[in-house]
Amino acid sequence: MHNLTKKLHQRKYLYTLFLIISILIVLFVNLRPGFVFATGDYRYHINRIEALATAIQHFNFLPKVDEFFSGGLGYASSLFYPDLFLYPAAILRVLGVPIVVTYLLTQVGINFLTLTVTFLAGKRLHFSTKNNLIFTFVYVLSSYRLQVLYSRHDIGELMGMIFFPLVLSELINLKKGNTKEWYVLTFAMVGIGLSHIISLFMMVCFAAMYVILNLKYFWDKDRIMAIVKAAIVSIGLVFGFYAPILEQMADQQFTLKTDPLIFIYQQTQSFTDLVSHSFSNQVFHASTVNVGFVVFVGLVVYSIYNLIKRKNISLTLIALFMFISCSDWFPWYQLRDTLFSAFQFPWRFFSVISLIVAYFIANDDLHIFDIKYTTPVLLIGMLILSFALGQFTVQASPWRINSYQSYNQISSYLIGAGHEYLPSEVNYDDVKENKARTLDYDSKQIKISNQKITKNIIKFKFDAKNKSKVVLPLFYYKGYQANVSGDGHSTVPALNKQNGYAQIKLSGSGTVVVQYHYTTIQKIGLAVSLATAGYCGYLIWRRRQSID
Question: How far apart are CA 401 and CA 33, in angstroms?
Answer without folding.
Answer: 11
